Every structure is written in C-alpha cells, then in structure tokens.
C-alpha cells in the first residue's frame, strides 16, 4: 500500500510554515520505503545514510552485545527514524534499527536533507529546531539508561508509549526496561497494586 506524504507534510508544518513550492520540494526529495517485519532500517556496523519518517508501522532501536540485545527506544507512526550519530559523522552505527511490524516509511538521503535545509523557505530554522529536538531526546535516553531504576524505566515506557504494550512482546518491554521477563512481571504486578490502591482509596 502506498501512503501519501500528507502526514509528513503536516509534521514538518508543525515546525515551520510551508509554501506550495516547499511542498513540491518535499515531495521530490522523499522516497517510499517498505520494511517487512524483522528487516533492518540500518544494521549495527553499517553507516546510516538516510532519515526516515514512519507513515505506518513500528521500529526498535537496539544494541547487540555478545548476543545480548538491549532496546533503548522505539519509533512509531509520525516519528522520524535515524541513527543520527552515524548519519552525521558517517561512522558505522553502534546500534541497529529494525522493523517490529511491516512498516511503510518515506526516506531522504543526506544529500537530499542538505538540499531541503538549503531550499526550504524556512530551512535553516527547520534544521536548527530538529537538531535541538534530537539532542534533547538523545540526552534523555542516555541519562535514563544510566540513572533510572527498572521501575522508573517501566514508568517511562508507560508514559511515552501508552498504546505500545499491545503491539510488542513482553521480551521487548523487558529489554527496554533492562530486566528479564520474569522480573518485568513482578514490576508490573507492583504497579498494578499501586494503581488499585490509588483507585480504591477514599477521598
């Protein structure tokens, strides 16, 4: 199924105003990409050469260390997807990005993205805001990995991805939280107890 660029254009329009010429430019620079479930947007050890926008589907960002996988983020509909560290430095990725579901994206190359920044009416502002957002998001993920407890990671998952639990496996959630699936079950049970206590307590 082919998806129109409407959602992507509206996403960009939330950041900067777009003229008809800007929309034509975007339409010419982004190309459709379809990923089957289990296919990689980029593999660990490869250089990431493109930025994607997820029209439909779901991806995970993960690191594989000696056969042990650690998920540190997810990307779903209306999210941009990229290993920005590799994309900007042209160095091999230290992580992989993989489709958890069949996914439809629009992608733009590094050359195309530079053209977008140069030719878009408010391209410089768009580039600056996007880079700022990426920096804040990346720093938040990094700090969380090193400072948050598993319970706090689970709370973060519930807050940031409220609709995701029905689309992924317990293994994926446990990997994101940083525990074994059995430990995740205990954490969820404790949180369920807290929720019940809060609901059932008198005013």
Automatic annotation (TrEMBL):
Transmembrane segments: none annotated. Residues 33-116 form the Cyclic nucleotide-binding domain. InterPro entries: cNMP-bd_dom (IPR000595), cNMP-bd_dom_sf (IPR018490), RmlC-like_jellyroll (IPR014710). It holds the Pfam family cNMP_binding. This is Crp/Fnr family transcriptional regulator.
């Amino acid at each position: 199924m082919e998806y129109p660029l409407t959602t992507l254009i509206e996403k960009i329009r939330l950041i900067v105003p777009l003229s008809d010429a800007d929309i034509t430019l975007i339409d010419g620079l982004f190309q459709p990409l379809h990923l089957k479930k289990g296919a990689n947007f980029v593999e660990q050890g490869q250089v990431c050469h493109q930025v994607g926008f997820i029209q439909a589907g779901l991806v995970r960002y993960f690191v594989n260390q000696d056969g042990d996988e650690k998920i540190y983020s997810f990307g779903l509909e209306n999210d941009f997807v990229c290993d920005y560290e590799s994309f900007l430095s042209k160095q091999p990725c230290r992580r992989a990005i993989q489709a958890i579901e069949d996914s439809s994206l629009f992608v733009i190359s590094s050359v195309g993205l530079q053209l977008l920044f140069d030719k878009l009416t408010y391209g410089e502002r768009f580039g600056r805001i996007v880079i700022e957002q990426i920096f804040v998001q990346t720093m938040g993920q990094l700090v969380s990995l090193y400072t948050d407890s598993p319970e706090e990671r689970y709370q973060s998952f519930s807050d940031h991805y409220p609709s995701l639990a029905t689309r992924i496996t317990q293994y994926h959630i446990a990997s994101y939280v940083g525990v074994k699936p059995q430990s995740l079950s205990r954490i969820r049970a404790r949180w369920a107890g807290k929720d019940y206590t809060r609901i059932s307590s008198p005013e």
